[in-house]
Specification:
The chain has 145 residues and is an alpha+beta fold. It is built from 3 helices and 9 strands, in the order βββββαβααβββ. Strands 1, 2, 3, 4, 5, 6, 7, 8 and 9 form a 9-stranded mixed β-sheet that branches. The two termini are 14 Å apart. The mean pLDDT is 93.
């Protein structure tokens, strides 16, 4: 994918990625975490880094006018993570239904590029199915093609 992204830093184990969002609200540190469930299944956690509490805040609203660039950066970290952890599968869901729809919007917008590299399934009524446009999923499962 040739989308505009922010430069990011990966931890040595490729389980944590950091980057800086820049816009009208200033410079805001973003963090992507990959948390292992079991075996090769990982949860994607993403949000602003709360320096005071030293934790990820997945409910904050930055409004830094860089949504597409942020989504593209997170997608790039997923691709790098999956390249590093062969056979890994990543589950992604928003902290709220509207955030899950935001992820879906990003997937749909860049579907031609994404579908060449990744297999994405959507969770609908407690069942996983191959991703289809215009279906509101509750979560996404991403793996390498």
């Amino acid at each position: 994918m040739q989308l505009e992204t922010y430069p990011f830093i990966a931890s040595q184990d490729y389980l944590r990625f950091e980057f800086l969002s820049q816009g009208p609200q200033g410079t805001i540190k973003k963090v992507v975490l990959f948390q292992q469930f079991q075996g090769n299944l990982y949860n994607l956690a993403f949000g602003d880094w709360d320096e005071t509490r030293q934790r990820l805040d997945d409910l904050s609203r930055t409004n830094n006018n860089d949504r597409d660039k942020v989504i593209a950066t997170v997608a790039s970290t997923v691709a790098l993570f999956i390249d590093h952890y062969k056979g890994a599968m990543v589950i992604a869901t928003g902290s709220t239904p509207s955030r899950t729809r935001l992820y879906q919007s990003g997937i749909n917008k860049y579907w031609p590029e994404i579908s060449r590299l990744l297999v994405i399934e959507g969770l609908l009524n407690e069942k996983w199915e191959l991703h289809k446009k215009n279906v509101n999923y509750q979560a996404f499962l991403v793996k390498k093609k």
